Amino acid sequence: MQLEKYRDALPIPPLARPIGTYNHLPYYEMKMTQFRQSLHSQLPSTMVWGFNGHYPGPTFDVCSGQPLYVSWCNQLPSNHLLPIDHSIQGANSCLPDVRTVTHLHGGINPTYYDGYPEAWFTRDFRERGPYFVSPLYFYRNEQPSATLWYHDHALAITRLNNYAGLSGLYIIRDPEEHRFHLPQSPYEIPLIIQDRSFQADGSLYYPNQPEYTQSDWPYPSVVRYFFGDTMLVNGKVWPYLSVEPRKYRFRILNGCNSRFLRLQLSSNQLFVQIGTDQGFLPHPITIRQLLLGPAERADIIIDFHTQAGESLLLKNNAPTPYPHGKPIEGDSTEHVMQFRVQETLEEEDISQIPPSLVPIKRLQPTPTTPIRLLSLDESKDHYGRPLMLLHHERWNDPVSICPQLGTQEVWNLINTTELSHPIHLHLVKFLILCRRSFDVERYQATGRIHFTQQSRPPSPSEAGWKDTVISPPGEVTSIISCFSPYTGRYVWHCHMLEHEDYEMMRPFLVIR
C-alpha cells in the first residue's frame, strides 16, 4: 500500500514531568511498555515500545546544574517484537530476549549511571546483567545547554530495542541560552527523524537476514545495515507542520539505525545552524544543506516570514549506504516532512539570531599529548558474514585503551572501510581537529599511514563540541578530548546500530 505523504500533523512529544521528589530532588519514573500507536492514518495501529506510553518518549527539558533522579522501569513483555540473532556475542540464547538499559547519549555521568551495555535488566529486575548497579539513575546535569537524547543500549540488541521505539530527547538549558532571545515554545520544536518499514497489517518490519545469504548462516541473522522505506518524524510517517510566517527553532536528531541524512529545503533557501551535539556553535552559520550521521544532532533556525501561504518540504538526499551507496533521488525516503506556512502571525516575531553565541576554548595537542591510532576495519566472521571492528578487536577482548583521568588525548580514527562510520565516545565531549585522506592499501599492507592529501579542518557545522563524529572512508579523522571528570569503564562505538550490535563497540577504562 502506498501511503499518502503529508496527511498527518506532526506530533510533539510531551514533556517528561517529575512525579515527586527523592532526596529533595526531582524524581522521574520512565516506564518502558508495549502498546499500539498510530504512525500513519492509512495504516492500522502499530505495536511499538516506548516510555510512559509514548513513542518517541517524553522530552526532558531541564536546567543546567539541576540534579535529578530517573527510575528506568522495564515493564515490557518477555517476547521481543523483532528477530534476534542468537549467534552474536551478547545475544546468546541463554540470555533473556528482552532486556534493557538506558544510556543518556551525550550525558557526562559516572559509569554506573551511564547505561553500560552489560548493565541491562529485565522486567521487574528479575534478571540482571553483570554490570547492573541500580535502575535509579542520578543525573547531575552539570553541562552547558545542549540537545542530548536517551535510548536503549543493551548489548547486541540495541538496534532492535531502538527500532521498536525506546528513545527520546533530553534538553539541557543554561542561563547563557536565555540571553540570546532565540525562538521559544511554541516556536521551538523537536524533530526526531527515523526510518521504518511496515508490514501490510501495520506492524514493524525488520529483516530476518541479509538480502543475500548462504545456507549455513544462522536464522535469524544480523544484517550489515538497515534502511527503512518510509521516513518518520516524532513517530509519524511523512507528517506536516503548520507554521506561522516567522522564525522557528528546530532541535533535529538523526535517530535512524544506519541511515545518514543530508537535509535541505525544497525551496533551496538558506537556514541557520546555531548548535551541534554538545551545545552552541561559536557563532551562527548559514547553510543550505545539513549532514547528520546516526545519533548526531543539530540546532537550527528556519525563517518562514517570506513564505506566507506557501508549502515547502524538508528533503533528504544522502545515498544509502553513505557516502558511496545508492542515490535516493525519486525514492520515497527523499521526502521527510512538509512545512505549511498557513497560520496567522499571532504576535510580532521578536526572537533574534545573535551574531555570536558561545566561544569555544580550543583544545590543542602538545608534544606530550598521547596520540592513539585506532583503525576502523571490515572483516568476515566464521560464517562469511561482514564484520565491522574497532582496531581489529572484539567486545570481549581485554581493555586496550586506558586514558588517565584529567588528561587530553588525540584519537586518530583510521577508516579502512568503504563506509562512513558515526563514532560515539561515552563520558566525554570532543573537538574535531582535522581529516586527511590516506593510502588504504598501503596501510593495510604495512601498517603505516601514507597521506595522499593535505588535511582539512572540520566543516563549520562541526566547529563546536561533539560527542559523535563522522569518520569518512579512506580518511584519518582526528579528535581531541579531555577524559574527565570520572574514572571507570565506558564504551566507544560506531552508532550505526547494526555495527554496534555486532562487535563494532569497545570498552575503555579511565584510570587515576
Question: Would you mind describing this structure in some detail?
Answer:
- This protein has 512 residues and is mainly beta.
- It has helices at residues 158-164, 175-178, 440-446, 497-501; strands spanning 20-22, 25-37, 46-51, 60-63, 68-74, 102-105, 136-139, 146-152, 167-173, 188-198, 204-205, 230-233, 236-237, 240-242, 247-254, 261-265, 271-276, 279-287, 290-292, 297-303, 311-316, 335-340, 371-380, 386-390, 408-415, 421-425, 430-437, 468-471, 475-482, 488-494, 505-510.
- Strands 10, 11, 12, 13, 15, 17, 18 and 20 form an eight-stranded mixed β-sheet that branches.
- A hairpin with a 2-residue loop joins strand 17 and strand 18 (279-287).
- The chain is globular and about 65 Å long.
- The N and C termini lie far apart (58 Å).
- The mean pLDDT is 96.
Q: Can you tell me the overall shape?
A: globular
Radius of gyration: 22 Å
The chain-level mean pLDDT equals: 96
- Number of helical elements: 4
Major pleated sheet: 8 strands, mixed
What is the tally of beta strands?
31
Backbone structural class = mainly beta
What is the rounded distance between the termini? 58 Å
User: What's the helical proportion of residues?
Assistant: under 10%
Low-confidence stretches: none
Strand content: 35-45%
